[in-house]
Structure formats: C-alpha cells, structure tokens
Amino acid sequence: MNYEILTVTPFAQNCTLLICPETKDAAIFDPGGDVESILAVIRKKGVNVTQILLTHGHIDHVGGVVELNEYLHVPVIGPHRDDAPLIEALAQQASMFGFPMVKTFTPDRWLEEGDSINVGTRRLEVYHCPGHAPGHVIFFDRAARLAQVGDVLFNGGIGRTDLPGGDHASLLRSIRDKLWPLGDDVTFIPGHGAISTFCEERRSNPFVSDSILGPGR
Ligand SMILES: [Zn+2]
Ligand SMILES: [Zn+2]
After folding, report:
1. Pairing state of beta strands 116-119 and 122-128?
2. What value, to the nearest 5°, has the Cα angle with vertex 37 and ends 91 and 49?
3. I want to staple 56 with a disulfide (CB 3.0 to 4.6 A). Which of 2, 30, 93, 136 is the partner?
4. Which strands form 196-197's sheet, in the order they lie side by side?
5. Which domains does the chain have, with CATH numbers?
6. What is the distance in A from the centroid of ligand 1 to the CA of 122?
7. Ligand (nearest to CA of 7)
C-alpha cells in the first residue's frame, strides 16, 4: 500500500491519501481542512479517489469533508455512530477551536467493529476504539501491516480525553486490547505527528508502554 501524508489545519492534522498500488484507487483519511492542498496531491498522484474515510468526529479531522466532496462526490464512510453528536455539533467545535465555520454532514455509512473496507484490491479492517472520542474507529491493512489510528495513539503520546465523550480508562483499553493484538510489527499513522510502530510504543511510550500497562492480551 502506498500512502502520502499531508499536514492540514492549524492543528497539524495528518490527512492521509492511501493508494492501492495495483488499481490506483485511493482513499482519503480525515480531510480536516486545507482542501486545495489535498486536491493538489490527488491531482499530482493521478489517483482515483473512491471514498473519504473518517476516524472520528473532531473538526481537525472532518472540517474539510463537505468542501472536498464538492469536487470528489464520493461516499463518506465512518466513524462509528457514537460520534454523530460531535459531527452534528461541528459549528460549536469551530467556535470552540477557532476554526472557520464549516458545513456539517451525515456520513453515507457509519462503521462498526468488524466491518471491512476495500480500497482497490486492498482490504482494511475496522476496529471501534473509544476513549479519545466515543465513536473513534481505526483502520488496519493486515497485509501491509499498516494502521490509521487517528487520535487514539501518537508517537510518544496518546489522545486527550478531556473533550466531550472522552474517557481515559476506555482509551487505555482500546490501545491495549484492540491495537496491541494487531502485532508488534505494525506501523501506524497517527492523527498528529510522526509515524511509529506498536513495538516502539510498547517499549517507550510514557503512557502505554508495557512497563506501565502490562503486556495485555
Ligand atoms: Zn481528535
Ligand atoms: Zn486530532
């Protein structure tokens, strides 16, 4: 699987273009804003975007959905419906975080634990990982050993849990019981900051290393 990460919005959110190398079909993850730059990368790569995939409903991840889709006209898929209240409250999120006003939307499809998504010939598994946001999902390409984890886990950090619907204990459970079993060799693209591996986070992450959480399942 090929990918290109674009840093968007004042929150430096990682919007990812994931490309099937065989078909050149692609998915856009979390278009938080800066839609012109996202479109420029799509054009430069010459790919066929088939869907917009969302990890959770925070404005830095979904603020560009409506504007981007005025150009793409593709299905908007995810997150889990427990984030519906966050997406309905995008106007309040915009004023709270100092974002320009954006249009709200209803995803074409909500995701559940155990769902899967195809991007070209590649398959992404969906896991519901609440804690940072109640409807947060992550996407896992088992063959490529690559996960899109949004704001669940960062290189050296974890998602904040002080926003509406956040829950610290749930977040730790999501990381230990949903992410770690996918494998130590998994590379992950977080919602902010540099990529890393589960192995490295289990060794050195000050919030969720094995020495703090225990080895889990
Ligand atoms: Zn978030
Ligand atoms: Zn974020």
Report:
1. antiparallel
2. 90
3. 136
4. 116-119, 122-128, 137-141, 146-150, 187-190, 196-197
5. 2-213 (3.60.15.10)
6. 26
7. 2
Q: Is the dihedral of CA 86, 107, 122, 216 positive or negative?
A: positive
Q: Which residues pair with 51 in a beta bridge?
A: 27
**CA of 160 relative to ligand 1 center, distance in Å:** 8
> What does the block give as tokens for 191?
């919602």
Q: How far is the CA of 178 from the centre of ligand 2 (A)?
A: 19
Return residues with CB closer than 5 A to ligand 2 (ion): 60, 151, 191
pLDDT of the chain, 217 residues: tens digit per residue: 799 999 999 999 999 999 999 999 999 999 999 999 999 999 999 999 999 999 999 999 999 999 999 999 999 999 999 999 999 999 999 999 888 888 899 999 999 999 999 999 999 999 999 999 999 999 999 999 999 999 999 999 999 999 989 999 999 999 999 999 999 999 999 999 999 999 999 999 999 999 998 765 5
